[in-house]
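User: Can you model how flavin-adenine dinucleotide sits in this protein?
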Amino acid sequence: MKVAVVGLGIAGLSICARMALAGHEVSGFEQFDLMNDQGSSHGDTRIIRLSPGEGETYQRLARRAGEMWRFWEGLAGRPLIEWMGGLMAGPQGSPFVQSCKRMSNKPAALLRGDAIHPLTRGMIAMPYEYDVFRQDDCGVIAADATRAFLIKQAPRWGAKLYANTRIAGPIDAPLLSVNGEKRAFDAVIVASGGWARKLLPEFAGKLDVRRRIVGWFKTPSPRLMPIMCVDNEVGLYGMPTPGGLYKIGLHTVGGAVDPDIVASPGETDAEALSEQARLFLPQHDPTPVRMARCLYTMTPDENFLITPSRAHDRVLLFSACSGHGFKYAPIYGELAEEWIEGKPSPELEAFGEAKRIAATGLGGGVVD
Ligand SMILES: Cc1cc2nc3c(=O)[nH]c(=O)nc-3n(C[C@H](O)[C@H](O)[C@H](O)COP(=O)(O)OP(=O)(O)OC[C@H]3O[C@@H](n4cnc5c(N)ncnc54)[C@H](O)[C@@H]3O)c2cc1C
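Assistant: Here's the modeled complex, given as C-alpha cells:
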C-alpha cells in the first residue's frame, strides 16, 4: 500500500520504519529539519519504565516495546537505553506510587521519604511523609540518538523521508498537497504532535497543546543519581543525562500555546525549576546550566488518541501524546500496521475514541 506519514517526530519515524519493513511504499513528511527541536521528541534523554504505573494497556505496551528496543539497539549497534532504576515518590497513599508498586509485582515495602537522603548519600532529599517505591526496571533513553538511528534505518528499509515539507491542512482524505502537487495515498497517518489539531480540526477540542520546560543542573555525583518521578503539585521528574548533568522537568507546569509560537525559556521558568532543585536536590547548585522547551499535547484523560478521522476512514490520527509517549515508540509501527490491515487490536480499541477511558484506567499524574 502507498502510505503517507505526516510528521516525523519519534512516532512518525517509528511508523515509517516499520511500515517500510513490512513492505509498504512509505513517504514521510516533516515540516522542519528531521532533527528539529520544535515538537515533543527532541533532547538528549527520556525516561522509560517497563512497569509504567499507568494501567494495564500501557503495561502491555511497555513489555512489547522493551523487546523492540533491544531489536533497535541491535540494528543501531549501540545501546539506546541505560538501565539504572529509579525512585517513584509521592505523598502518603499516592495513587501513582501505589500503581507503580502494583504493576511491578514486586513484594518490596515502600520506603519512607526520609530514607532517600542517606540512600543517595545526600544527593536527593524527600519529605518524611512521602511514600517511595524503588523501581528497578527503569532507565534513560538516548532520545536524539534514537531519532538519528531511525532517520538512517527507515530509508534502509525503503521509506522516503522528506524534510522541510509542510503538509497543508485540513486533511479530509488520503490525498495530500505536497509542495503544491496533489499526491494520492491508500492511507494517511497523521503523527504531527501538537500540530494535529490544525491538520485534523475535528479533534482540536481533544488535543490541548502545552508548553513545557526542562532544565539541566550540575551534579556533584552523576553516577549516584537515580531517575525520580514525584507525584507532587508540579509533577517533578528527573534523570541523569550525558555530560554528568541531572535534568529535571515539571509535568504539570506550563500554559496552552500555539505550537508555531512558543516562547523560549526565561527567568520565570528558571525560578520554577530552581525551587524544585532546592527542595529535592541538596548539594546541587539550584541554578540550571541550561534549559529547553518542549510541547505536550494533552488529551482530557491523558491517554493516547489513535483513531480514524470521521471524514475519511483511511486517515488516522496518531497522537502518542500527553507527555509519556517516547518509551513506547518501537511499538507505534506495529499499531499502525494493525490499523492498516484491520487486525483486532486491544491497544487500538483502548486508544480509540469509544472505549478508551474504561479500558486504560490511568494511575497517576506523573510523567515517566
Ligand atoms: C519535556 C518533555 C519530557 C518528556 N518526557 C518523557 C519521558 O520521560 N518518557 C516518555 O516516554 N515520554 C516523554 N515525553 C513525551 C514524548 O517525548 C512524546 O510523547 C513524543 O515525543 C511525541 O512524539 P510525536 O512524534 O507524537 O510528536 P512530535 O515529536 O511533536 O512530532 C510531530 C512532528 O510533526 C511535524 N509536523 C507537524 N505538522 C506538520 C505538517 N503540517 N507537515 C509536516 N510535518 C508536520 C512536527 O514538526 C514534528 O516534528 C516527554 C515530552 C516532553 C515535551
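A couple of observations from the model: The domain at 84-139+208-298 is CATH 3.30.9.10 (D-Amino Acid Oxidase; Chain A, domain 2). Confidence is low (pLDDT under 50) at residues 359-368.
User: Helpful, thanks.
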